[in-house]
């Protein structure tokens, strides 16, 4: 019986060894590379987490209602806060967004849909890419020359425009990419339904590309909120709440810059608290924009 | 070229300037498409083809790849205007307008002559919004919901989607997406539906559903259908236009070989070329 069975079996093949061998050169190399990747990831996250840790530890203690509403203290005063700087930063980032988002998105419409291959488009795209690496202090100097000197005053306007100059390329390039990702067949469908080109853009391409556009906008806003160099020559600083847009205006980043260099304990503590407030603000906008712009479909 | 022997070569294309015998429509004609020449830049894509589309019938376009059947179809609602180098020489009579008349707005033409594409292309919106898109575009003042439901039922997809109208149109399967696109196209009750190989990307079951749908739709609409599948033409089309491609002069120019009632084209064609094609001797 067993003989018959053996005859019916297929001829035996010599199977290669399939067991794992940890001492093989391949396995060792793979292990070393994996370990290296883990090590580098941990190394890279040390500064990240230590910054956040320090911010919470050093700034958290002073980040109370007084800090976010009161005016900055002078000299040896105790207490005080940076309410005016929060308002100033919000107003100037708001001005910058109001300028750079519409201009950037419409420029992106031109670059990605209307005339992607034209001379104007290729030149602007190249310049936008160059401008993303533009030293931010130059934006400040540029706006100082065209707005501060001509109006003869530092102002929230000038600060907002300087931030807009920095936001514009990021918004434009991100929006262009987002709109380019909208599949051609969706555009064909819209044209086939009897849409004009304007309707195709506003009813189909912009809504479909919105999540990508918003990601670019968040990045730009976060970057602008943290900028100090372009505000040095444009908004300057102020120790009071702003009364109008055409006067020197406080901002969180300049306040941090000023206070962290002072020899007073109180001011240094406030600088930490302001840093934490800035990070929380950027985080808040980030989450908000993600919720609003989440792709529903 | 050398792979094709001379005998086949002779019958693959008509030498000279062959022009098909004009098809005599039996019923009222909605679109009388009379192509003299269609160019893309210097390239002549289609020549001398007169293809009348009859009311409440399915007119099928068959022919080998590159014969210009899609080009002709897309000329009928001026979709080809979106291709920059496109040039149309001829006439497309739609009721009492020539749609290539300078005074005609292609955007408005496309609202009367709807289109269903080869690949399903729903917008990234909810199922409901996809179908309501055309109604909103035309500022429809009546009961929007009623029209959407009607279109979804007409496109035989209502039972699949009635509980998830708020879900994304892109969440559906390929066949469902295509029926959604048909619902979207018929929601505004266009006069004519141009269908450019609407089932070529679908599996056999979905294809069958789309085919049954086309037969039903012709009660209310006029359908022009490009298909790569000859069996589909025999199953669906009342009238069939067979187009060939002329490669004799080094170009690739499509032209109408024969147009007639589908049964006549498949069972008793006039042209030798048609006979060979429907027998499956070349494609």
From TrEMBL, chain A:
Q: What are the residue boundaries of the ABC transmembrane type-1 domain, all occurrences included?
A: 86-289
Transmembrane residues, as ranges?
Answer: 31-56, 85-114, 126-150, 156-179, 200-225, 270-289
Q: Which SUPFAM superfamilies match?
A: MetI-like
> What Gene3D superfamilies does the database record attribute to this sequence?
MetI-like
Give the UniProt subcellular location, in the record's own words. Answer: Cell inner membrane; Cell membrane
Q: Where is the signal peptide?
A: none
Q: Which UniProt key words apply to this protein?
A: Cell membrane, Membrane, Phosphate transport, Transmembrane, Transmembrane helix, Transport
The way it spans or sits in the membrane comes to: Multi-pass membrane protein
Indicate yes or no for the key word tRNA processing: no
Task: Provide an example Pfam family for this protein.
Answer: BPD_transp_1
Q: What highest taxon heads this organism's lineage?
A: Bacteria
Similarity remark: Belongs to the binding-protein-dependent transport system permease family. CysTW subfamily.
* PANTHER family per the UniProt record, alphabetical: PHOSPHATE TRANSPORT SYSTEM PERMEASE PROTEIN PSTA
The protein here is known as Phosphate transport system permease protein PstA
Q: Which organism is it from?
A: Thiomicrorhabdus heinhorstiae
């Amino acid at each position: 019986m067993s003989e018959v069975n053996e005859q019916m079996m297929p001829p035996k093949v010599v199977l290669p060894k399939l067991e794992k061998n940890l001492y093989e050169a391949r396995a060792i190399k793979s292990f070393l590379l994996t370990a290296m990747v883990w090590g580098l990831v941990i190394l890279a996250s040390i500064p990240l987490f230590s910054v956040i840790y320090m911010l919470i530890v050093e700034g958290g203690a002073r980040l109370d209602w007084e800090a976010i509403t009161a005016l900055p203290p002078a000299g040896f005063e105790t207490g005080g806060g940076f309410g005016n700087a929060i308002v100033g930063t919000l107003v100037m980032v708001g001005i910058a967004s109001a300028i750079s988002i519409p201009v950037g998105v419409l420029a992106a419409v031109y670059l990605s849909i209307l005339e992607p291959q034209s001379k104007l488009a290729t030149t602007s795209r190249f310049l936008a890419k160059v401008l993303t690496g533009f030293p931010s202090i130059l934006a400040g100097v540029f706006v100082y020359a065209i707005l501060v000197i001509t109006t003869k005053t530092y102002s929230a306007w000038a600060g907002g425009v300087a931030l807009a100059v920095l936001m514009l390329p990021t918004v434009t390039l991100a929006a262009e990419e987002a709109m380019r990702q909208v599949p051609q067949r969706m555009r064909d469908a819209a044209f086939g339904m009897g849409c004009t080109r304007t309707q195709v853009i506003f009813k189909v391409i912009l809504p479909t590309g919105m999540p990508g556009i918003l990601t670019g906008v968040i990045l730009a806003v976060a970057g602008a909120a943290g900028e100090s160099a372009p505000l040095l020559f444009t908004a300057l600083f102020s120790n009071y709440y702003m009364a109008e847009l055409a006067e020197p205006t406080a901002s969180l980043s300049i306040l941090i810059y000023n206070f962290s260099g002072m020899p007073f304990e109180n001011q240094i503590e406030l600088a930490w608290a302001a840093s934490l407030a800035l990070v929380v603000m950027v985080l808040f906008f980030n989450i908000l924009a993600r919720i609003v712009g989440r792709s529903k479909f | 070229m050398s792979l094709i022997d001379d005998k086949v070569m002779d019958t693959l294309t008509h030498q000279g300037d062959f022009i098909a015998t004009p098809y005599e429509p039996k019923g009222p004609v909605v679109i009388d498409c009379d192509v003299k020449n269609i160019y893309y830049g210097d390239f002549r894509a289609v020549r001398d083809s007169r293809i009348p589309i009859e009311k409440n019938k399915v007119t099928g376009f068959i022919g080998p790849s590159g014969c210009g059947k899609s080009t002709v179809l897309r000329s009928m609602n001026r979709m080809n205007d979106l291709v920059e180098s496109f040039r149309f020489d001829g006439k497309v009579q739609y009721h009492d307008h020539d749609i290539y008349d300078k005074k005609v707005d292609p955007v408005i033409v496309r609202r009367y002559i709807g289109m269903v594409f080869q690949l399903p292309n729903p917008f990234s919106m909810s199922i409901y919004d996809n179908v309501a898109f055309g109604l909103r575009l035309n500022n429809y003042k009546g009961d929007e919901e009623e029209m959407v439901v009607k279109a979804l039922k007409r496109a035989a997809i209502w039972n699949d989607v009635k509980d998830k109208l708020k879900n994304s149109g892109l969440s559906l399967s390929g066949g469902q997406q295509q029926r959604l696109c048909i619902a979207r196209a018929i929601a505004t009750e266009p006069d004519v539906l141009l269908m450019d190989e609407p089932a070529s990307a679908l599996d056999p079951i979905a294809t069958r559903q789309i085919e049954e749908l086309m037969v039903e739709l012709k009660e209310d609409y006029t359908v022009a259908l490009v298909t790569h599948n000859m069996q589909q033409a025999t199953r669906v089309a009342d009238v069939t236009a067979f187009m060939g491609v002329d490669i004799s002069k080094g170009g690739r120019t499509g032209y109408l070989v024969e147009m007639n009632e589908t049964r006549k084209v498949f069972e008793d064609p006039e042209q030798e070329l048609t006979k060979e094609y429907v027998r499956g001797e070349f494609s």
